[in-house]
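Example complex used in Figure S2.
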Amino acid sequence: METIGFIGAGNLGTPIVTNLLQAGYKVKIYNRTREKAQPLEALGAELVSSPAAAAVPGGIVMSLVADDKAVESVAGDELMQALGHGGIHVSMSTISPDTSRILAAHHQKMGVTYVAAPVFARPEAAAAKIGNAVISGPADAKERIKPLLQAGFAKNIFDLGEDVGSANVLKLMGNFMIAGAIEMMAEAFALAEKNGVDSKVAYEMLTTTLFAAPIFRGYGAMVVDRKYVGNPAFSAALGLKDMNLVLQTATRSHTPMPLAQLVQSRLMTVVARDVKEADWTALAMGALEDAGLKG
Amino acid sequence: METIGFIGAGNLGTPIVTNLLQAGYKVKIYNRTREKAQPLEALGAELVSSPAAAAVPGGIVMSLVADDKAVESVAGDELMQALGHGGIHVSMSTISPDTSRILAAHHQKMGVTYVAAPVFARPEAAAAKIGNAVISGPADAKERIKPLLQAGFAKNIFDLGEDVGSANVLKLMGNFMIAGAIEMMAEAFALAEKNGVDSKVAYEMLTTTLFAAPIFRGYGAMVVDRKYVGNPAFSAALGLKDMNLVLQTATRSHTPMPLAQLVQSRLMTVVARDVKEADWTALAMGALEDAGLKG
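Predicted assembly (590 residues):
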């Protein structure tokens, strides 16, 4: 079976590579901090010492790293040369649509196809292959990578067309809406608590009827129970990075987004106060503490 | 079968009374504008000419009117005397929790029990009896009215305890969260449109996965298609009234709610600009027009 290069053995990369190995793919894994990839080596992945060493000529390399700079640093000329003509770079990180477009143009010059395929999944959802993929880029490359996304983490794949930036925009929209939902619940539950309403009943009502969606169910429980510190599935720092990308994209396209500014401020406060082990749900502390409640 | 008094033949009162009649209840209906209740007379309701005339001694009167003032004006001493000892007033309007508490105390003095039972349902959901009821007040009165709520509109009933204000607070939380969801989608879809993303695909992705809840599905389509003007199911003016109640309750309880302030401003603008036949979803025009898009 095909050998796949994978760059990034983080919270999401690890379950995805594990799934790819279980599906029978050979995986060459690169991670900047080598030790983090060693558990995957134990599962059968080949640990390599540079991004380019993960590539097979004409093959597929998937990258899932922290931010724009990290993608730019791994997707350099060496990786392009190693992938060569017919090669595909599947860029799964949450990055700016502009970065995707600039990288895609550079890839094309080097004969490599760039596909944007950001991941909608918490680590446990990726592990269970019930995540969602959104993809954009050239049609034939998208067809070629779909089985990999399905084997790795995705229950559903949504195709956003040829402009590579589109999938990145949708990923930012989704993360903005999650952050907005957390703010919304923080304010609503603050109102409940300040007015003697049983938060658990209110949570049960709202998240089994009008707001019966995984986002409200999951994050709502974390807000009501103040369970957003310790072992973060998605850290406040990463949430802040994403809201910065939302505002950057909004600013460049002249799109005023006051709610995005609010949640970005909330996350900035969590990071500024150096709340240890904070999941991004900790942005709820803002509305709760502003109301004099325990954050 | 029992005779029920019903006050208010509006968008929601009409389908609820229709359901009660179909379930075999006898209904005495009062509406300030008599003509609006005539279709219900045709279905078998008895049209009466004052709120008190809707009451049977020791019986149940349900009210579903526009705002706090309207509830205060119908639930006066005449209605109390007509209901008398053992009577129950089921107050279904979206009003301030404080108004509920004040009314409940006055009812009690007159021997009548006040139950708060605001309605979570658009008219078509009420008609289909798939709405949600939230109730608060004395336990025995709540037990007695449950079959009526089920016959009238409710698939689920959530009990918020003895403090009558609690159900009103939860109703306000829910409406605030719907308004917040509309703002969130307006900002997100503005970002999509300004960045060349296909809104329909983005809508499909977001509302079938992370945000697969009726609120996002229904209101999201209205935002994407700009279908919030003409034949409003819930008008911008009523939405503004509710957000005013949210902020009033927030202010009295010292609960800063910046997102609630934002959506209240958005609705105020829709009303200030006198947008004809505007559903409250028209608050989305704010974010869209701020981005230079068609509102």
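The longest strand of chain B covers residues 154-159. The radius of gyration of chain B is 20 Å.
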